[in-house]
Fold:
Amino acid sequence: MTKDIATRNLNDLITKVEAARLRVSGHHIVKIVGVSKYYSSSDVEELYKVGQRAFGENKVQDLKQKMIDLDEHPLEWHFIGSLQSNKINNLIDLNPTLMHSLDSIDLANELNKKLEIKNRKMSCLLQINSSYEESKSGVDPKDAINIYKQIVETCPNITLKGVMTIGANSEDEAKIKDSFMITKKIFDDLKEFNPMYCSMGMSGDFELAIACGSNLIRVGSTLFKSE
Ligand SMILES: *Cc1c(COP(=O)(O)O)cnc(C)c1O
Structure:
């Protein structure tokens, strides 16, 4: 990616995010995480040079490689993929800023145990399967509040900071909106825990997600496109 393209992509995205968030409220701030999973470390560096700081990866090995490649820059790294048990210790060692994909009580218990052994903490979001798609990870919306509470009470090394969802995989905007509204409702119902992030919205649906209350979007292809 050239500097001109990085500038254009980031400006276009910020312009759209700005308009979408102002339609919600002037006080509604939206964080942008650039999802670099299909792109190179040098593409990430170009976006860093024009001002983007937060990036996300969905594989522990790829996250590690990019962190090594870009070690000299003050980047913020997010983990957004399914976490296999045998990769938990590796992820802990990488100390990501935020892990978006805590998707079961079993994973929470296992992660907490390994964090305890290493005397470390990790900030996480509870992933919710609000589209009820079998191919997607996440807890069932009806169990989300109880599981969130249970993790807060029994996993002291996990700092829960909110919720994450992937919008329904559909052409039907109403279906996508439903999955976002379900997640936003859970986020609102968690008020007693002071959740910080409602992570929803990707390249194809971030404006709708923001309209539904998202305050963190994960954008890959739109930010990294080279055309
Ligand atoms: C790949 C991915 C994204 C970004 O998707 P784009 O459509 O390229 O913006 C966001 N969130 C998760 C969990 C992903 O795996």
Q: What stands out?
A: The chain has a mean pLDDT of 97. The CA atoms of residues 82 and 101 lie 6 Å apart. Strands lie at 31-35, 54-57, 76-79, 98-102, 122-127, 158-164, 197-199, 216-219. The radius of gyration is 17 Å.
